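If you are new to this repository, start here. Below is one unmodified record pulled from the training split, so you can see the exact layout before writing a loader.
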Amino acid sequence: MSQLSTKHLLGIKNITENDVQLILETAANFKEVINRPIKKVPSLRDITIANIFFENSTRTRLSFELAEKRLSADVVNFSSSNSSVKKGETLVDTVNNILSMKVDMVVMRHSSPGAPHFLSRNVKANIVNAGDGTHEHPTQALLDAFSIKEKFGDVAGKKVAIIGDILHSRVALSNIFCLQKLGAEVMVCGPITLLPKYIQSLGVKVELDVKKALQWCDVANVLRIQLERQQIKYFPSLREYSLYYGINKKLLDQLDKEIVIMHPGPINRGVELSSDVADSEHAIILEQVQNGVAVRMAVLYLLAGAKN
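And here is the target side for that same chain:
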């Protein structure tokens, strides 16, 4: 079996193109598994995985938990809201206490950028980053790339526009790194106030007009406005944002081609996407959710193989 070049998945930036390809190939095999009548394999029967979430999550947490159970791993769920972290316990102490119960792998979401990297240097376990602040969300980028590959047969040469709140999005950064490693062209589009100042240094095209971005791309990956991360107002109102950057059926009908619509969820319906687009044949949003389980199975399985 081919192996990953790393024993952690901390971000897309610090893994190789071969790592990405290996994860996507392995995910394709696991997608067959989860579509069988018996959806379980004994691949991680002797592995214990702790899901440690310091931020709220529904999709990612459920997806990881399902992936772990499909691989027959033992699963421990930890939520910071009812833990000793509230009493002042440090991150390393919290995780080391969990590891002392013989946990092999940690899936962690944290509001601080770099928290999984810090943990990987201080504890003895495989670390999977399930989202760190506004930094990276590697498994989301991998499942997005897998979904594009499944739809088109290849990611190389495809034009992907990432539209919306780029500034606060960990999905955007991981997607840019992942798509570029796989040979896609990437454009970001959103209000100037929601584009990071460094964005052009990442080698992406920048567009402020959503119609032009949609006309250019094969795939539009539409991001949610992350109001919970915004300390100040970046645009006048959600209604105004929707007017200038919301994607609706009328807008798509004006294009001279068909494009694929993606969204990492949860969708703010009527803001970044209208319901008639989110539920249309253009959208592969539910396929992304299903692919998320297969991709996370692949990541966990390959990291378990890279344990030593």
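Two things worth knowing about this chain: Residues 285-305 form the longest helix (21 residues). Confidence is low (pLDDT under 50) at residues 228-232.
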